[in-house]
Design goal:
The chain is mainly alpha-helical. It has helices spanning 9-31, 33-44, 48-75, 78-96, 102-130, 136-161, 167-188, 207-215, 218-248, 253-281, 285-304, 310-324, 330-335, 343-368, 377-400, 410-413.
């Protein structure tokens, strides 16, 4: 295989890194809502249910967009799509900073979710096109690292800002960052490597064929259940409810936000390690099973253990994040069972499951909580049990996954479509 300067591995990693900055931005503006939720609730005079609906509006729309996003990215110019949607995120963030009513806020946050829906799947598609197949899990691990760093900045960074400014000023600043990011992507990201002389011309795959292949794949369905159980709970528990739970345990708001950030830090720091280990070992499934089993245990420990000192809780959060970091391997596990040209749609539909249930699970606990007893620990623990149940579902799905190997590609193996 010939490698030209324009297709060099270093250039591919640089292009991927710039595209992945959009994931950092997405998680800052998505997860940061947990830090500003109290101020937004007070400023807009919202109930706890309304606040949950407002928070979930991002993820619900984000999840519904994932399959269309994947199909678009499989067919359109990724540079133009990612650059324009990052610019749109910036514009909508500024409009959200001016919102005065619940319905304005819901519409604008949902709009941000629709535009940000291109971030994670777009970075995955760029990785699939520019990064060598044997390093795909590593690249997805670093995307999860960026994901975790964005969540930490959204938690701790937003909380720090609120000591000196308002949530409206913060979102106005995020609007500037989003617009700058959009320009950077348009300038530096490229859609595909230049075609090599020994590479066949990519053939566009009909939409019906893409949908039929994805819907008939057992690996895709199990991947959706797994990601809903792992990252759906992370989006909802870490994106909103963990802070409230730690406050019910008696921690200050500042300590609760810090503890929540440690969970995302654990996930972000270990996800590349899991990707590297999986690529080196040549196995996906055992690590996915281990991660799901560990998450069941740590979720139960965090929710149901009686009050313990801050260092113990911090260690538990980091270990939980460590197990959650294994979930990044579900993307190579699914993509390695299907044709490379379905990658965007496959990443999108699996990510959609996690995000959709992340949104749903932000609302469900608010339906179980009594608004007059928000400081009652027993009430919180009973309403949080649903997160442990979803981790159990992820564990069951992991047991049913097919094993795959780094670098596998359906078109290279000449197999029949994956139907079982």
């Amino acid at each position: 295989m010939q490698t030209t300067a324009s297709n060099s591995p270093v250039r591919g990693w640089v292009i991927w890194a710039v595209a992945t900055l959009f994931v950092v931005y997405q998680l800052m503006i998505q997860n940061g809502f947990g830090a500003i939720a109290g101020d937004v609730r007070h400023d807009l005079d919202l109930s706890i249910l309304s606040t949950g609906v407002l928070s979930a509006s991002f993820l619900v729309v984000y999840s519904l967009m994932q399959l269309p996003v994947g199909l678009i990215l499989d067919r359109a110019n990724a540079r133009l799509v990612l650059g324009c949607t990052a610019l749109l995120c910036g514009l909508l963030a500024w409009l959200f900073s001016q919102a005065d009513t619940l319905w304005e806020a819901i519409a604008l946050r949902a709009g941000i979710g629709a535009a940000a829906a291109f971030a994670f799947t777009g970075a995955g598609v760029i990785a699939r096109r520019w990064i060598h197949p044997s390093q795909f899990a590593l690249a997805m691990g670093f995307i999860d690292f960026s994901f975790g760093m964005g969540a930490v900045i959204g938690d701790a960074g937003f909380e720090l800002w609120l000591q000196h400014g308002t949530w409206r000023q913060l979102l106005a600043g995020m609007a500037v960052v989003g617009c700058g990011l959009g320009v950077l992507i348009l300038l530096l990201v490229r859609n595909r490597p230049a075609e090599r002389t020994d590479a066949p011309e990519p053939v566009p795959i009909p939409l019906r064929t893409s949908l039929r292949t994805l819907c008939s794949s057992r690996q895709v369905w199990l991947g959706m259940v797994f990601y809903a159980g792992m990252c759906g709970t992370m989006f909802s528990f870490g994106g909103l409810w963990n802070i409230r739970l730690q406050e019910a345990f008696g921690f200050s708001t500042s300590d609760a936000i810090s503890l929540n950030s440690i969970m995302f830090l654990g996930m972000g720091l270990t996800a590349p390690c899991w990707g590297w280990l999986s690529d080196r070992w040549g196995r996906r499934k055992p690590i996915l099973v281990l991660g799901a089993a560990g998450s069941v245990v740590m979720s139960a420990v965090i929710i149901f253990t009686p009050w313990v000192p801050y260092p113990w809780v911090a260690a538990s959060m980091f270990v939980h994040g460590l197990f959650l970091g294994t979930s990044v391997l579900i993307f190579p596990s699914v993509c390695e069972r299907i044709n490379r040209e379905f990658s965007g749609a496959a990443i999108g539909i699996v990510n959609a499951a996690g995000c959709f249930f992340g949104g749903v699970l932000q609302i469900v606990p608010s339906l179980l909580l009594d608004g007059d007893r928000l400081d009652d620990l027993g009430t919180f623990q009973r309403s949080m049990a649903i997160f442990t149940v979803f981790h159990v579902l992820a564990f069951i799905a992991a047991l049913g996954l097919h094993e795959t190997r780094p670098g596998w590609a359906r078109e290279q193996r000449h197999d029949a479509p994956d139907t079982g």
